[in-house]
Amino acid sequence: MKADLMEAQQPVTDGTSSALRTQSGTCEIDVALTAAAVSGVRDLVRACLRLWGLAELDWRVTLTASEFLTNAFQHARKEDESSVPVKVVLTRTPDGVFLCVSDPHPRLPAPVPAGGNDEGGRGLMLIKKLSTKYGCSSTARGKDVWATILRSA
Fold first, then answer.
1. For an engineered disulfide with 146, which of 14, 57, 100, 109 has Cβ 3.0 to 4.6 Å away?
2. How far apart are CA 66 and CA 54, in angstroms?
3. Bigger pLDDT: 1 vs 10
């Protein structure tokens, strides 16, 4: 088995760090997600894409990651807590990447109608446009939301 390319504590924002592990086509990020940490996690995803030579997928994958992470922070975080434990797994595929974000809340995402002036409610519609395939699954620890993003899409 090939040795890890990188395993480190990576700062994602002031006061928040993540455990990052990359290994031959897989990048795992465990983080106590705060609102401020979303951009730092997105930067780690971007770094993995560049490591794999997939920079052309950057904006689609990082925007998808941002949507998944923001939803996890808004909906999976307990009201009295400032963060939520989240795991991000980015896996290289022959034609692109598979992105999965796991959080501890069991409720699966569902489309919400958005009015012209609403700030939210368009996330799943956006994910549908950015990805080749997306979905969600219940797990013993909460849920996984995932998307496949291909070069040719």
1. 100
2. 18
3. 10
Whole-model pTM: value is 0.84
Cβ neighbors of 98 (< 8 A, separation 6 or more) are: 89, 90, 91, 146, 147, 148, 149
Pick from 21, 23, 148: nearest CA to 96: 148
Per-residue exposure over 105-134, b if at least 16 CB sit within 10 Å of its own CB, e if not: beeebeeeeeeeeeeeeebbeebeebbbeb
C-alpha torsion 116→120→121→126, nearest 10: 90
For residue 88, what are the CA distances in angstroms to 33, 65, 104? 11, 8, 13
pLDDT in tens, 75-125: 889 889 889 999 999 999 999 999 999 999 999 877 666 666 656 656 778
